[in-house]
Amino acid sequence: MAPSLIASPNFRGNFNRLFTDSQFLQCLILLFSLFNLSLCLYEDQVGKFDWRQNYVGKIKFASFDSVSTAKKIIVATEENVIAALNIKTGQILWRRVLEKGYAGRIRAMENTMDGELISVNGGVPAIVRYWNSATGHIINEWTLADQNPDRIDSPFISYTTEGLYSSERIEDVKWHIKDGTLHHILPIYNSGIEVTSYDSKTGEKLKTTKISAPFISQDTECVLAAPHYVCLKSDSVILFSINIFKPKQQPETLTINHIMGSGSQGPYRISLVPGNVAAISISADNNRRKRLMYVHENENLTLHTRDIEGDNFLYVNKFGDNIVVLESSYDNKVTTITATELNKPDAQPEKIGSLNHKALYNPALVAIDCTYQSMKAKMCKYLMTSEDHSISLLQQKVFWTREEALANIVAVEFIELPMSERDRAIETEFDQKERDVIGMLVRRLTSQANQASTFIQSLLGLEPQQSSERADLVRDKFGLHKMIVAVTSAGKIFGIESKKGEIIWQLRVPNIRGFSQETNNMVLYVQRGSRHYPHPPQCSLLAADKPIRDYLQDTGNGIIFTFNPINGELLGGLKKLNYKVKQSLLLHATTDNFLRSIVLLDDKDRVHVFPENASAIATSAGPNTFIFTVDKTTGVLSGYSLSYSTPQNLVAHKVWELVFSPKNQRITHVVSKDPIERVHSQGRVLGDRSVLYKYINPNLVAVVTQGTNGAHKNTLNLYLLDVVSGSMVFSIVHKRTKGPVHVVHSENWLVYSYFNEKSRRTEIATLELYEGKTQSNTTVFSSLATTKLPIVERQAFIFPASVESMQETITEKGITSKHILVALANGGVLELPWMLVDPRRPVNPEMREEGVIPYMPEIPIHMDGIINYNQSVYRVSGIHTSPSGLESTCLVFVHGLDLFYTRVAPSKTFDVLKEDFDYYLIVIVLSALLISSYVTKKLASQKDLKTNS
């Protein structure tokens, strides 16, 4: 009988060996899986020299999440962001940044009964997303690409025929989410509205209903107070209301006199009132008063006949069986919330809360959460957003505040911090005009007595006398600690210290806007720094005036706001100018108190000086002062000279003009060099030991235009223009290319990025300008004396990422190598060495030079070049760089939806010892050398003595 296979000793040994090997393999897999869970960071990547702050932007929709156990606030913002905020601290729990621009604009957002979230964004295609509100993960996503393919009069086709809906009025398309169903309301001019219902989770089309409404036209202002679609025609005084869920019901009409009462005057405006009860407000008498209409339980529009102040913000909410309208008013820096029960006809407003807090400036209620269905102030939490875009949570007091204005910064400056009190005393001691012996002796004795008193107090452990300024806001020896002054589009100015990112002070300038509607740009000038003690540092903000009311005329006149950038104190306050500012210029010459004046050119080409008492300084600098202006609407560039000024009056004389056709070449960018930039090297040494001198023209400006050619293909044109003489130095055309375009202009080179439509990729092009091997002028450059055109080296590279912003590094003396900081769409900020984009990179081996790497068409992105490592920053709108006290170090501030600050050293830290430098070793070596030299000297002298004897 054959032996059993199971009883075989060889099989048992093989089985045990296999079992042992499998256990070892499992342990090995577990060990390697632990490596994937571990995170490794370098020491300089843990926030030692950098910090980041995350924001969400101005609130558009908000709601309290009361279904899940972890209470939070769900918000959707103007920056195309959906996020969840911690209800106790205001910190961001999760944040999702949607598509950029129009495609990501959020149209509607609603919480479902099961605690999930539904959002609609974009136009064509409209994107519907179903979110997990606890984690922010997308559960489902579907698109609504074509609203009605059977009709040619699609609302998204630009067409001039009467009755068609243009793409410019895409905001009139309304969305309504109820009980898991998404309703899409599409108005059609002079015809009616089309209501299409979808399953919000799957995107399945349920039904389509057409409702006749011939009164809808381009002049009709409509809002959706579900289920009512309410319209107000501007050329009449009739209000139309349609029930979108009852298509056979005739539209209801109401006259304005019935709503507002007899004797009311226009203009009349209609707007949607937030809350969990659908309501609208109708304003009259130039928005001095308004009345409320809300949807009752029987789905009828009900009028509340009490007049409400036009400036009050409304919020309609249902508490149990009562419908209550909450009004928030702002007067004398006091925010007051009142409540009125709409169910009771004779109910009067009841004050339920009043608060005076600096974080609240004309706030509006955007969400409310009450416990036990009570409307008492102590039981309710109020989420409010102010005119300065800040978000605050209130419950008898302000729980927390988020400064969301920082998500939209339009101007930045680095300000050097002032000296310490000891340094000020020394500065005062030696910076005196009188030189008598007794006065100097008294100041010396007083200074030393103060120093001795401070030393004794430190020994005894006594606290010195407190200063009016913070002790940590002083200048450090390397100039790395500075104040960041940031101006936001909301008119709020922040002072942020660069070490930790703490907001030291904040100012609000009411009723201002940027000069351009597209970029909302404002200008921030540093008229005096912190080096001129006892004169305080001074900054001036230049912007345009905005009317207090919407119905008032927008003059667009300029304003100047003067303040101290270190502590935020007002120095001159707000000054309104009675003219529009066309161009401005900060002069280099200073007054007796070290103040640099600002030259302003108005829309009538008249010249003004701020401050006015500095006109003598501006007049003396007039012969060498030139100003250029750009009108992007008309495509006209003009150059002016102040050389024709008289001692009594400054005169701007036009010396040249350049016109671009706005139809074919629309001006998009005008980029000049950094005024504080210094050029250390005047030339470039070639392989044959000759010098190729740089073309360093401080008056050179890059002008970028975009348009179409005869074949209707997109083109990009770049011009290098001397704005003093008006001469064209260089021009280049890129066919089949389009924006976004980002330009960096520095020294004798230019770097710009664009999108190549033919190859469908982002490219970076570089230009480098040289005078040749002979330098025309070694002292001062003159645009009027230069006639020879420069030699232009140019090259293009493939960049494997989308670019959001670019900026060059800058140092105090200009000795350090230049690097390009590139903000990527994926949230990284790349430090790109200039050698990689050098246009002199040789294509052929015969053209190779020393120190120049061979040409490669694609620029690699090395992960060690990402200066913000895993601290991603999104929607970057600008990068600001500033020199420090160290020639090797450049300070970097990145702003957009997030803020990020760090320092970079393009040529490494050659002027600073490393932190692990062995001081003891160097002391021992130096001591040994000193002792050995002394001993050697003694021995040598004794030997000479014996030899001579």
Automatic annotation (TrEMBL):
Q: Which residues form the EMC1 first beta-propeller domain?
A: 41-151, 188-404
Describe the location of the ER membrane protein complex subunit 1 C-terminal domain by residue ranges: 746-947
Q: How does it sit in the membrane?
A: Single-pass type I membrane protein
Segments crossing the lipid bilayer: 917-936
Report the record's Gene Ontology biological process terms: protein folding in endoplasmic reticulum
Respond yes or no to whether keyword Chaperone is given for this record. Answer: no
Q: Which InterPro entries match?
A: Beta-prop_EMC1_1st, EMC1, EMC1_C, Quinoprotein_ADH-like_sf, WD40/YVTN_repeat-like_dom_sf
Where does it localize?
A: Endoplasmic reticulum membrane
Which residues lie in coiled coils? none
Main localization is endoplasmic reticulum
Gene Ontology cellular-component terms listed: EMC complex
Q: Which SUPFAM superfamilies match?
A: Quinoprotein alcohol dehydrogenase-like
Keywords, A to Z? Endoplasmic reticulum, Glycoprotein, Membrane, Signal, Transmembrane, Transmembrane helix
> What top-level branch of life does the organism fall under?
Eukaryota
Is Ribosomal protein set as a keyword in this record?
A: no
Q: Which PANTHER family match?
A: ER MEMBRANE PROTEIN COMPLEX SUBUNIT 1
Summary of subunit composition and partner proteins? Component of the ER membrane protein complex (EMC).
State the similarity comment. Belongs to the EMC1 family.
Q: What is this protein called?
A: ER membrane protein complex subunit 1
Which lineage is the organism of this entry classified under, starting from the top rank?
A: Eukaryota, Metazoa, Ecdysozoa, Arthropoda, Hexapoda
